[in-house]
Amino acid sequence: MASGSKIWNVFSLAAALGAAAVAKKAIDGSWRAATGKNPPENPADPDVDLWEAVAWATVSGTAIALARMLATRKAAGYYARSTGHLPPGLQKD
């Protein structure tokens, strides 16, 4: 079971990181299209308007978390089809 656990850890990590990178790229482009400006590099910087920092944190956090969740679910489905059972940590007792 330890081997399956290691495989799942690597597989789910790769899926989540890939999804986060794709989501970040899409969010950056959408932000530029919507505002005409680059997204804030550091929303905590006092020079960034508060509304812009809050909007960026909300949009980017939601989109990246959603993309990671969807990618991990897709990876879990592939893992289950390949092995015949859910990945470690997702199995029901």
What class, by secondary structure content?
Answer: mainly alpha
Query: Radius of gyration over alpha carbons?
Result: 18 Å
N- and C-termini, Cα separation: 15 Å
Task: Note poorly predicted spans.
Answer: none
Q: Round the mean pLDDT to the nearest integer and report it.
A: 89
As for the number of domains, it is: 1
Task: Count helical runs.
Answer: 2
Shape: elongated
Biggest β-sheet description: none
Strand content: under 5%
Q: H/E order of the elements?
A: HH
Bin the helical content: over 70%
Q: How many β-strand stretches?
A: 0
What does this 3D model show about the protein?
This protein is mainly alpha-helical. It has one domain (2-83). Helix content is 73%, strand content 0%. It contains 2 helices and no strands. The longest helix has 34 residues, at 2-35. The radius of gyration is 18 Å and the shape is elongated. The two termini are 15 Å apart. The model has no long low-confidence stretch (mean pLDDT 89). This is DUF4235 domain-containing protein. InterPro entries: DUF4235 (IPR025329). It comes from Nocardioides malaquae. The chain crosses the membrane at residues 50-71. Keywords: Membrane, Transmembrane, Transmembrane helix.
Tell me the layout of helices and strands:
Elements: H1 2-35, H2 50-83
